[in-house]
Amino acid sequence: MSKPNPNPASSKSAPDLAALSFEQAMEQLEAIVERVESGQVGLEQALAEYERGVALVRQCRDVLQKAELRVEELSKLAAAVDSKADGEA
Amino acid sequence: MARLPFDPAKMAAAKRAEQQPLLATAPAGDDAITVSQLADRLDAALKGAFPQRVRVVGEVSNFHDRTHWYFDLKDATAVINCVMFASAARKAGFVIEHGQQLVVSGRVEFYAKGGKVSFIADKIEPVGAGALDLAYRKLCDELRELGWFAPERKRPLPIFPRKIAVVTSRSAAALQDVLNTIRKRCPAVGVVLADVRVQGDGEAAEVAAAIRTISGIHASLGVDAVLVTRGGGSKEDLWTFNERIVAEAIVACAIPVVAAIGHETDTTIAELVADERCATPTQAAMRLTPDSAALIRQAETIHRRLTSLMESHLRAESRRIDSLVRRPALAQPGRMVAAKGQELDHARRRLVSAASMVVQRTARRIGAASARLDTMKPTALHARVSTRVETLATRLQAAARKEMASHDPRALDDRLTRGMARLMESRADRIDALDRQLELVAPQRVLDRGFSLTTSADGSLVRSTADVKPGQAVRTRLADGQFESTVSGAATPTTPRKPGRTRRLGEKPGDEGQLDLFGS
To answer: Where does residue B274 rank: exposed (0-12), middle (13-18), buried (19+ CB within 10 A)?
Structure first.
């Protein structure tokens, strides 16, 4: 699994958060806590990290609390993937 | 025995064949034949009676492996000796066990040397469940050899799969168990259902194909794990998951596979090669989905931790600010000003003392000028000027003292310092101007009276004949101007004098040198 870029400098708001998987979001959260905990970041960066951390927490919680089970059919998905592949070929 | 998939009619036929009389016509008593001849005839009769291969089912007993295999095959009422030659035994694929139910294929012959009817087996098959067990064990051995069961081959399951592909029958209770568990535990995990038949012909191929499809497009599906599952059933019902084709698909799958087939007591090959085996579909679904309640708690813990970290960060920063504020530079700016004031005061004192030195020096020069004036007549002029100068000097000194005395160091500022400096300078300038004026005025009066003033090239006053040498350039100043000349002859003092004693201007107006100069 390719890891997301945990670079805090690229801390943006909502759009890139939505693209993260839950696992990636949790990984980023842990990285943020570690960085802030280390005390090696300046106040401004710490604040930016904190802001992103809170957004990540909110996103994770939303994913967990608001989700409803979705069941898809492999046969339909596979057909869609196939036709897409055919279209590209 | 009820489940044995063999035709009872064939078995009956075999039995009948055994019971038939071996020879239709017995030889007459006198026409005795040898044992060997009898054996030949028996053998021929047997072969005639069973021209084709026969399949016989029975239970193994007295099995011996002596290069060739020797055993008895029996049922409730009969027994027959069997031989399986090494060449055929090698192809059997399994080793016969005592008590085993076997279907043995071969032919019947009369073994002359042993005087027995023997069944020469060329093929043996285990019967019913025994057959499945054997096939299972055989595949197990083979796959173990390939390392497919090795723990190091097992991959860790994703902590939070985006989607799980469930390979099972749509109608199976197992699917409902899985869906209910996921819905309860973590509905954020999606399910992709691969609906397969889990019973009947070609089911193994279908299961294998579904797994291969998922493996091929898992990335675009967003599927992170596969769950192969089926509820409980008979050994035959679960047989699909013991087939090699399914095992191969699981092993080749690009993402981790969890298998939960049948009940806990059943262990299928699919489960042995899967990355993780679970006892039931519910357990498998639990194993594959994170507990969202626990995750929410975790997220909240992280949130709290982050917030408290941030707060302590902020506290630390504000402590830093506080300690900076307490530093003298910021805490008592007045002290800094006072320190600067002291510096300023010190500078001022130096300036005043420098100024007073100027005053004193000037006073000394005035004193000297005054002394020189003393020597010049008229005395009245001298006295007047001298008095004025002294008055000025006194005033200047008094002013300087006053300035020094009246000054409050704390109130001192640049303006004061500059004013002081200006004051000092201007007074000094005035004294200088006065001095210059004196210098100019006093001799001028003398010159007006017809005296002249001779200076050497360096500007020093020629006061004595000793001051000049022949050939030296001198400058002579008269009342109306000046001229330059060169001393042409040796100086002749009018009266012997002590060397170094200053001859005062105006005192010796009859000085020969001077007269000479004045006269020329």
So the answer is: buried
Question: If interface means Cβ-Cβ distance under 8 Å, which residues of chain A face chain B?
Answer: 1, 21-23, 26, 29-30, 32-33, 36-37, 39, 43, 46-47, 50, 53-54, 57, 60-61, 63-65, 67-75, 77-78, 81, 84
Instruction: Give the three-state DSSP class for B338.
Output: helix
CB contact under 8 A, A36 and B306: yes
B445-449: Cβ within 8 A, 24+ apart: B445/B376, B445/B381, B446/B376, B446/B505, B446/B506, B447/B477, B447/B478, B447/B479, B448/B479
- What is the C-alpha separation between B203 and B196, in angstroms, rounded? 7
Please give the model's pTM, rounded to 2 decimal places: 0.48
Which residues of B fall within a CB distance of 8 Å from A71?
Answer: 179, 190-193
For the CA atoms of chain B, what is the radius of gyration? 70
Nearest-neighbour CA in chain B from A3: distance (Å) = 14
How far apart (Å, rounded) are the C-alpha atoms in residues A79 and A62? Answer: 32
Fill in the amino acid letter for B519.
G
Cα dihedral B133, B136, B138, B142 in deg (nearest 10): -160
B409, B342 contact by CB (below 8 A): yes
Which segments in chain B show pLDDT lower than 70?
1-30, 128-131, 198-201, 333, 373-384, 403-420, 423, 435-445, 495-520
Q: Does position A67 have pLDDT exceeding 90, yes or no?
A: no
**Of the candidates B296, B303, B313, which has its C-beta nearest A65's C-beta?**
B296
Contact present, B71 and B62 (Cβ < 8 Å): yes
- A76 closest CA partner among B350, B345, B305, B170: B170
Predicted local distance difference test score (pLDDT) of residue B324: 82
Separation between Cα atoms, residue B115 and residue B501, nearest integer Å: 179
Q: How far apart are CA B259 and CA B253, in angstroms?
A: 13
Whether omega for the bond prior to residue B378 falls within 30 degrees of 0, making it cis, is: yes
d(CA B70, CA B85): 9
Q: What is the CA radius of gyration of chain A?
A: 18
> β-strands B453-456, B473-478: how paired?
antiparallel
Q: Are B207 and B196 in contact (CB under 8 A)?
A: yes
CB B197 within 8 A of CB B167: no
Specify whether the CB–CB gap between B250 and B259 falls below 8 A: yes
> How far is B136 from B60, CA to CA, in rounded Å?
21
Helices B292-326, A43-66: inter-axial angle, 10-degree rounding? 160
